[in-house]
What does this fold into?
Amino acid sequence: MSHKIINVTVRDVRFPTSLEQHGSDAMHTDPDYSTAYVVIDTDCGLKGFGFTFTLGKGTEIVRPRERSDPPGHGCSPECCVGPVGEGRGQGGDLFITCMGCFSRLPEDLMLKEGYPAYTTSCAWLGYSDQLLKQLCTDALKSGWTKFKVKVGADLEDDIRRCRLIRQMIGPSNTLMIDANQRWDVAEAISWVSSLAEFKPLWIEEPTSPDDILGHAAISKALAPLGIGVATGEQCHSRVMFKQFLQASALQFVQIDSCRLGSVNENLAVLLMAHKFQVPVCPHAGGVGLCELVQHLILFDYICVSGSLSNRMCEYVDHLHEHFTSPVVIHNAHYMPPKEPGYSCEMLESSVQRHQYPDGDVWKMIINK
Ligand SMILES: C[C@H](O)[C@@H](O)CC(=O)C(=O)O
Ligand SMILES: [Mg+2]
It folds into this structure.
């Protein structure tokens, strides 16, 4: 039986998250979480859905790739626009199938308790201390035990915010910090040393995401303080991850379902991380990244690592309502998705309202 693709549409869908500083960090002060959203129609009525994530204007870069450009036009095979443009979610029911064919024990545990998650949505850099306190209180009540705080713009602010959150979560909950590439190598080491009293488990993206040896130097300098280096959300290929692992430049692998183009590229990184015995703690959030990455992390646990030690998946509490099968979080754990597919179909009404620049939401903002 063969079927034909009869139409492909790509839409520029943006959410005005910058208005309330959701997603803000030391490098991205006004992100509008966005997608280049693809729908494929076939002659038998089946449809395919997929997207890649951007911070708004980035959609203008990845979108032509989503339309039709073949890979490698003027770019290296591992160039960043290629993989990001290919970060689409046509996973079919691969993951549901996989869960049936391996040992039942990890599968049962996932079905019962889910995969452990941490939250970033209490402490975006643009949030006030008052909002941070409120969100942290709510998160603790809902069972969250692992929290990530944005740092890197101003050391005094970082000390105050880390102290505040550490006081709120207590000594036994987990704190991570994320600088989003803001520092050079020496600055990263001294800045993070000043935050060591707050006992962060990791510093994320301390410097340029391409500086593998820089990350190795930071890892070495911070190891005696018990602080690991986490990176990967901007890492666009398995080749980069291979070198990070070979150089002992990271202690936590942060795959990103869209930045690494395709499920296959992500699986290659999961296998390498397992070989090097480095835990995978995926980047997620944005719009739709939690929906996609939940499949990858369940695959990692059930089929590759078989371990939850030092492992957790990022969660942010924004924009899930725009998906037909949003993630289910229970007691700070991702519960396995029950629907077949890669959870990447968006609600048509949401797509229409947020289409840029002529959806109703944007018309209102632009005409203000
Ligand atoms: C711009 C994004 O919101 C970024 O800050 C996300 C990120 O670094 C993370 O979630 O980790
Ligand atoms: Mg980050």
